[in-house]
Batch of 2 targets.
Target 1
Amino acid sequence: MPAATKNFAFLCGPDDFIVNRLGAERFAALAAEANADDFSREIISGFAANVDEVGAAVNRFRDAVQTVPMFGGKRVVWFKDVNFLADTVTGRAEGTLAQVEALQELLEKVNADEVAIVITAAPIDRRRSFPKWCEGQADFTLAGSDGESAGEALAGVALEEARTSGATFGEGALELLLAKVGPNTRLLTEETRKLATYAGEAAVIEPAFVDELTPNFAEGDFFESAEKFFAGDLRGTIAALERHFFNGGDARPVLSALQNRNRILIQVRVLLDTGELRAPGPYGFDKAAWARAAENHAKHFGGDAAKSAYQLFTQNQWYVGKLASAGRLPPLRRLIDNQLEFIAAFEEIIRRPNDQATVLREMAVRCLT
């Protein structure tokens, strides 16, 4: 059956932001195609916290689909934020399954010439019969899954937002942005829009812009402590630790951030000392040298390409170059001593769980003086 004759559009995936964004675009396109005025468009919330709310949502949707337009023409209905198709207590309930069957019967009888329907659902359990039925009967879109990794989906969101804003990402900028923001599509969109505005007429988002303007949301407020520590700023490190613990923070994520950064710098220091890498320039390490080093040492990492502080070559090359820039990279002996201090601090907070702030402050003093 041609896609144009299908009764409804069904967009789904694991991330509600990505799915709803696609749904909004489809809803707007269908409304424009049908020349639907405000009285002919309707958005129905499909969000339900229990079985009763599922029934209420399906009934509202049924009323919207079956309502005759006041001034004639075609109606456009968006059943948005449907969450009862997931593998949850509500999604598995008998009452919900009965409502889903009723929803399927309604969709089977819809006249596509009279009403255009968009359904957005996230997350969903694709093992159920209804999603499988939608794959064959609907204009079906699966966003951010099956062949598209979470990273690819997030990259797609950022690239699309940059394109909409009239900007592009410079080399390494997108990877750095994803590393700093983490898997938060809403935040990623806002940060991309901000960076595109900052890029101005050049319209190219450079890695330096990301580094300067985007906080490290992925690592949280303990990132500041790591930044100050590896800049050799004792006063700044202690101030960052005080803010962290004043806000109820725990020592372990701070130590984790410090250890992860130190592991990366140990690997960089060794490669610099052996001559496999040269000191990084403004655009990071030499790409050819980086690629050769990655190939030479791949066997030591077992072919694992997942991002990890244990594997230097899974990191953003530009950002690693920034971390290792002149004046910021200690000698190998100091880095190894740092790692031993981090281990000792971890053991100490196990013994003194109520003195975590003091333990880290003492550690910083020993390392930076």
Target 2
Amino acid sequence: MKRLKLLFTLAIPVLLMHDAQAQTSSRLIAAANWYNNGAIFKPLDSTAYTYTNPRGGDLMHTLKYNTATNWQVMTGDTVYSNNTTAYQQFDASNNIISQTNTVWNSVTSMWDNTTKTLYFYDATNRVDTMVSQVWGGSNWVNVSRDVYTYTAGTASHLFSIQHQLWNSATSGFDANTQKTFYYNVGGNLIQEIGQVYNTTTSTYNYTDKYDYTYTTGNMPATTTYSVWTGGGWVASNMYTYTYDASNNRTSEMYQTYNATSMGWDNVTVENYSSFVSGNPQLEIDQRWDTAAGGSWVNNLERTYAYNSYNQLTNSVDESWNIAGFWEHANGDRAANYYYETYTTSGVNNVAANGEVSIFPIPAQNTLNIKLNWNEAQAFTVAIYDMNGAVVRMWSVPATAQYTTGISTANFASGNYVVKIAGTNGQIVKQVVVAH
């Protein structure tokens, strides 16, 4: 079976096009996904993120980007097509105040607005209201609103989220559902109760709840989900977590409640090992086989790799063959994540008078460049390897928009820097080629 060529890449500071500056953090700039068709891994999609310093983020932290553009590969094809784009805006405190999502219209070759989320904050920069909207063809139309409240005191926690639906007849928001959160004396969340609004009684009725317990080391031990039957709570499912001496999570078991036996039935378990700085390098997923009294049987193995900032750079699946070994099989997934280092005074990826999209990342056969200047200007495009050698350079006459595709057949797999230098500004991007 042809195996996936894994590409483990770490962000390399771009010191070739500008004065060297201290790098202090690392942010996600691209993600690429593959799926196995039973023989090989094929490209699924690619997403690129652009930022204005000092914003950033990664898979474990809020992504504060200017744009996030996704390109999707149609089934059986290798050509990346426009799919979706998200745009974020920020206030003076660097809080996200809006995110607008668009989808590519293949008929008009334009981006169509789809949804929008507005965020509002209190004096301490906590979200107090979130409004969801949809595009109505000529204007944004309200759909729902979430209102957040917090507990009092210096150790304030989220207390409730009230979800409201837009009523076009009254031009206001009507109560719909709410969640209420409760904590122990140590500040750990111990219960989350969901309710739905009863328009007849004008009161909230219970729907479901989560109960949380913790280990002596203050780590989550169990998460139990229950539903309200009208007369009491009935358990539905539960997650149980275990840890090693360093508080690394070693397993996550999922069980469902059996009302007949009044006990918990095993369903799945995820086992983690080979930790590096608290991150597992290996995950083995198992399912419960009820035959012969029941036992855990292998299902999926997933390996992880990280960069020096403990950010995930790669994950790849292998399925269990009942003959007794792991192999890549139909439906397995793989993903690569790419980062760049940055500082508050570093070079922006988006120039003040233009922006560029370079995709897919990683590029296998073709590297696509789409450039939009705010005003027409002449410019040069240069691609450098990480030793500073020019591998491709060309000039473009004055224009405001530019699109091209570059064959990467003669590029060795690895990291490259694309520098677009215009009359009134420049853009520097790091890209990856993987054959």
